[in-house]
Amino acid sequence: xxxxxxxxxxxxxxxxxxxxxxxxxxxxxxxxxxxxxxxxxxxxxxxxxxxxxxxxxxxxxxxxxxxxxxxxxxxxxxxxxxxxxxxxxxxxxxxxxxxxxxxxxxxxxxxxxxxxxxxxxxxxxxxxxxxxxxxxxxxxxxxxxxxxxxxxxxxxxxxxxxxxxxxxxxxxxxxxxxxxxxxxxxxxxxxxxxxxxxxxxxxxxxxxxxxxxxxxxxxxxxxxxxxxxxxxxxxxxxxxxxxxxxxxxxxxxxxxxxxxxxxxxxxxxxxxxxxxxxxxxxxxxxxxxxxxxxxxxxxxxxxxxxxxxxxxxxxxxxxxxxxxxxxxxxxxxxxxxxxxxxxxxxxxxxxxxxxxxxxxxxxxxxxxxxxxxxxxxxxxxxxxxxxxxxxxxxxxxxxxxxxxxxxxxxxxxxxxxxxxxxxxxxxxxxxxxxxxxxxxxxxxxxxxxxxxxxxxxxx
Length: 459
Ligand code: GAP
Description:
Number of strands: 23
Distance between the termini: 29 Å
CATH topology of the largest domain: BirA Bifunctional Protein, domain 2
Largest sheet: 7 strands, mixed
CATH class of the largest domain: Alpha Beta
Oligomer: single chain
Bound molecules: glycyl-adenosine-5'-phosphate
């Protein structure tokens, strides 16, 4: 994939946004009051999808490794952290104001933003006069305690990383790790983006999954390559193939000032190729700054080389919401299929990898007014429920129920019918129909084999 192969597809994006709302993945925050730009709520299906992504990241980063531990830092931190990290002075985007429509735009994105009054034009071509660019700090201010003045000012964190740097020494000591080792964290971050847009892609409140991996000073580039490969493998394991991700080597002039090398992993969203995750070699910049500003030693004593130094850091930093969005875009499909009676119809399906699918299995009694079927279906539901998310549905024709679960991205459907009750021959008793969402093929399987059969595909 390269930049020029990007196919923009606004119609697909509109359908995904509408499906997200209709099926309960993602809603506009405070919608009944007209919403709040750049803030989103995840509904019943969205929260499960998001949780599965975070859980799998956590599992791969901590549980399956010896060299990474986790932490969960506070969103509010001492303002001194943001002074030391450089965010207070440099975490800004250039913005311009239009003197005609009075709107504010990011100066470096004028070519891709619609004019507020003439949406077919961009702010620079609509005729409105723009001010000179000015730096706009992206951190949300807040005050700690009852007095709102400079002494109580702090910020909602714009990245989770700084809590890790500030606690580096403590975590190192309590976990008794040796370099190379990492600290992983998942949590909310806030940025007062000038132009939040593209659904959840650029939000003002979002979640990050960040790993700060501490290494010997001469090993930074080696570990940068290692983490790039690991992260590509991770996306593949949640249903975003390697071929769908572009690895951009961020050029010198676009890299953050603290970085000696950065890869951006980019995905081809329907609105263009955009960053999913940044993997940055942050050198010793952050720990050095926190050591200087706090006066507390943050050096590491290397027992092998008998030397003391400030570790260097490689940071894979992924957006949870962007991963959710990429997975939704990757999974979305419309296709022509035959209904029960052989008539053609269109189905919308979300082909989620079973590992991240919000609901793993639909359980359907063929008829809801046949008590024996309902009792058996409840038994199957209760057998599976401790092991995975199950959705029990007895409303409407079975074909409709399958379609509803296709749209929710449920990979498996189990139907309890008259064969299950043994009414069509003893050999069928206690078997069910297992339907595969993607192939729509159905097979007859004994109920006791269901848990292992499904779990092996989910894992
Ligand atoms: N600690 C490094 C850091 O924060 P970043 O590139 O600014 O780096 C990392 O952010 C990731 O966080 C991005 O790749 C993206 O996935 C996510 N992210 C950043 N800003 C975002 C926003 N406004 N809305 C949604 N996700 C965002």
